[in-house]
Sequence to fold (962 residues):
Amino acid sequence: MLSNASSKKIPATVIHVHDLRCGYRQRSVLRGISFDVQQGEFIGLLGPNGSGKTTLLLALSGVIPAQSGRINVMQQPIFQVKPKERARRMAVVTQDTAVHFPFVCEEVVRMGRYPHQSRWQLEDAQDAAVVQRAMQLTDTETLSQRLITAISGGEKQRVSMAKALAQETPILLLDEATSAMDIHRKLQIFRVLRHLNQEGELTIIAVLHDINLAALFCRRLMLLKEGLLVADGQTGRVMTSEILQEVYDAEVLVHEVAETGKKQVVFLP
Amino acid sequence: MGSSISRWPNEKPPEKSYRILGHWFRSRCSLGFLYWFAALLMIALSAFLTSGIGSFDTTYDVIWRSWAAPLHPQWAEGIDERVRYIVVHVRLARICLALAVGGSLALAGAVYQGVLLNPLADPFTLGVSTGAAFGASLYILFGWAGGHFWGMSSLPIAAFLGALAALYLVYALGRVDGQIHTTTLILAGIIVSTFLSAWIGVLKSLNEDSVSTIVFWVMGSLSGKSWGHVLLVLPYLVAGGAVILYYARELDLLTLGDVPAQQLGVDVQQIRFRLMLAASLVTAAAVSVSGVIGFVGLVVPHLVRLGLGPHHRRLLPAVFLAGAVLLLMSDTLARSSLPNGQELPVGVVTAILGGPFFCYLMLHRKKYLQL
Amino acid sequence: MRNNLNLLTVLVFWGAIECVFLVPAFAMQVSDDQGRIISLEKPAQRIIPLYGAFAEMLFAIGAGEQVIARTQADAFPEGVKMLPSVGTHMKPNVEMIIGLKPDLVIQSASRREAIPGMDSLEQAGIPVAVFAPRNFSGIFATISRLGQLTGREQQAESLLEDLRKRLARVQFHLGLNQAESVLAGTDKRILARCTIKRRRTVFFEVRAEPLTAAGQGSMVQDILNLAGANNVVKSEKSLLIYNLESLLLSDPDFYLVQTGPMNRNPVDPRKRVHFEKLRATRDGNVLYVDEFLYSRPGPRCVNAVEQLAATLYPECFRAGTQ
Fold:
C-alpha cells in the first residue's frame, strides 16, 4: 500500500509501449508507436478519425493483439497478464455503451467488481461500498434502480463510467467516454477525474475529439495521425497552431484564455 | 499492487465487522434457501398433481402410496400391480423426463440468448435440432432399428450423433481467424440448418412411408419413455447445468458485449465457448430423447427475465424451474386432452401455449425485446 | 330482348339433344368414390393404377395385361414388377403418366392429402377414377367397378364370389354369424363347428415410432372383426398415436406388429421397455404381420383374415375340420 508520502517519489512507469504495430487482419492501423506513461499522468489522446486512437486503447487493454512491438503494463507484457488481473490494472470506458439486457443500472455498476471477486465469493460489504462510491462520484445514484435500457445515452455513459470506477484500477482508459453528455455533465465528470488523478494518483488516458476539453484537463497530449505518434508532450507545448494544423489539416488559432490560464483552440471557417 | 493505488479521496476503509458471515448469510443464504425450497416444493407438487391426470383415473391416495412403496412396501398393499407399474414406471418416469427436458431446453435457451445477444436465439439456433432430426431421419430411413439398449430403441443415439455432427460443422464454419464471433456463428447455424433440412427432405422423399415417423419425431413426444431415457439426459443436464451455473456471473458480463466483457476481465473466447458447448450438449441430449420441442427455450427465458430481471445467478435457476414446469404442463395436456388414449405431439402443445405469449411480447414489450 | 330469349331457347334445346345423342356413345359409366361419373367408350386398355392395391385387384381379375405402369413401391403380384414406374403414390409423375398415353388412371383418395397432378391429367383428357376402399364392402365394390371399367365383369364376379366364400368359411370355423352385408349371397345357414367362447383382444401396431395404432375406422378393424378379434383401441379414427398407459391398461391378448414400409424393422416388442409388462409379450403372443396384407385394402386382406383367425383360434382350425 502506498502511503501519502509516496506521491513525492519518482513515479513508476505504468505503461510502456515500444514500436507497437497493430491492426486488423493484414492491415496495420498503428504503424510503430512508442511511449511511456508514468503513474498519475492525465493524458489526452487526440487525432483525426482513423488515426488509430481507438485501436491503441484496444491494444492497451489487451482486446486486440499486437502485430509486433511491445506493450508492458506495470512492467509485465500485456499478453502475459491474465484477463482478470488485467481488469484489476486498468478499466476502460468505451463510447458505445449499448446494453442489450434490461439490467438495473446498479447491477451494471456492480459488474465492475467482477475482477475483484473470486468465483465462490459473493458480493461483500466492501464491494457494496465501492459501488456506492462510484455511483456517488458519477452522480448516478438516482439512476440506480432504473433500467439501463431505458435511460439516455449520456446517462448510460455515466453508468459506464461508474462501472469503470468500481473496478478500482490504477489506470483508466477513456474512449470518447463523455461524447453523449451535455457540457455540464462533461465538466462534472472531468472534474471528478481530475480529482481522482491528483489525489488518488489514478493514471488516465482519454481519447477525445474535443481539443478544448483536453486542453482544460489533460496535462499531457498525444497526437496521432495515420497510425503514427506525431506529437507527445506537455499540453502547453503540444497545443500549437503548427502542430494542430498538421494533424487535423485545418486552419486553427490557439489562444491562451487569461481567466483559466489554459490554451484553447479556435478553428477558422 | 492492484487496487490500493487508486484509493479514492476521502474514502473510508470498509467496516470489517460488516463482512462477517452474519451479514452474508442473512442477505444471501436464507433468501436463497427459501427460494430453492419453494421452487422444489412447486416442482414436487406439480409432479404429484399432474400424475393424477391421464388416460386412466386413479386417486391421489393410490399415487402417493405407489410413490412411497420403495420406502415402505406395506403402503402399496392393495394396489393393483399394473396400476402401480403405470404410476411409477410410466407416468412418473415421463414426468421426470418432461421436467429434465423442459429445464434443459429453457436453461440452454437462456444461455444462448445471453451469449449470442439475440432475443430470438433459442436452443436450436446453432442447428442442434436439425442435426438431431437428420440423425433420426437417417436412422428411420435405413431402419437400423434392430439396435436397442436398455430396452430403448437406439434412435436417441442416432439423433444425438446427428446433433453433435451439426454442432461441429457450425463451430467449424463459425470460426474466423481462430476466434468465434456471434454473428458468424448464428449465420453458420442457419446455413447448416438449411442444408440439413434439405437433406431431411431428400430422405423423406426417398421413403414416403417414413414421413410420418420423421414428422412426428420432429414435433416431439415424451410418449413411452422410461427411466432409461431420464438416465440418458441426466448426466448432460447435471454436467452442463453445473458449467452454466459456474459461469453465471460471466454470462452477465458477456451481455455487455465482447469488448466490454474482455475489459472487465472475462476471458471471452474461452468462457463463451465453454458456455455454448455446455448449452449445446444439454440441448442435444434433450432433443435426442424428446424430439424437437420448440418455444420452451425461446419463451421461458424471456418470461422469467421479465419477472426477475436479467441477472443470471437469479435468472438461471428460475428459468430451469419454469421450463421444467411448463413442459410438464404441456406434456400433461398432450397425453390427456384427447379421448381414447390418443396423444398430441408435445411440441405442438408448447407452440400453442408459447405462441400467444410471444405475440404479447412483440406487441407490448417491444422495448424489452429491443425491437 | 326477344332475340336473346330465342337464342337461349335454342341453346337449351341443343344441349338437350346433345345429351340424348352423345351419352349413349359411352359403353360404360361408373361412379367413383368421389361421386364423379367415369365414362369410357370401350373398356380401358392402358391403365395406370397409382396405388398398389388397385394393381393387385386388376391382376386378380385378369386385367394384368391392361396395366401399363406401376408406382415405385408396388411389387405384388410378380407381373407388376416388370412394368415401368411412374413415381410414387403420393407424388406421381404427371409427365411420365401422360407420356404413357393411358386411357384410365386409378388413384386412391384414402389419404387426406390433396393428390397433386390429378387435375392436369384430366385436362389432358385422361379419365381419373378415385376409389377409397376402407373395408371389405369397399374392396368388393371397387373390384366390381374395376371389372366394369376393364370389361372383365365376369372375372370380377367370380373373384368376388371366391373371396366371399373364403370369408364365410372363416366365419363358419369360428362359429360367427356376422358381417352379413359382406357375406351377402352366401349360404347363411352354415353350422358352426366351433363356437369361440370369448373374442380375443388385439392391439394392432401400425408404427412403432411414434406408437401408432389402428383404430375402429381402419381396414385393419374389419380384418380383426372378421377374424373374431376385438380391437382394444376404441377410437373411430383409422390411425392414431396411442398412449402407452392405455395400452398397458387394456393389456390385449395378442400384440400385432405390422412390418413393411410404414414400420421398418421395429424393435421386438419383447425387448422394448414397458412392453415386458404386457400379457401378450410375456405369453409369446406377439405376431408379426405383413403390412401389405393388413393395411392395404386389396384382395389379399382375405388372406389376412384367414391367417389371423387360424393363429388366434387354432382350436377351431385343427386338421380335419371342414
About this structure: Chain B touches chain A at residues 1-9, 11-12, 14-15, 18-19, 23-24, 28, 114, 117, 119, 177, 246, 249, 252-253, 255-257, 259-260, 262-267, 305, 309-311, 367-368, 370 (CB under 8 Å). The CA atoms of residues 308 and 315 of chain B lie 7 Å apart. The mean pLDDT of chain B is 82. The beta strands of chain B are 148-149, 152-153, 175-176, 179-180.
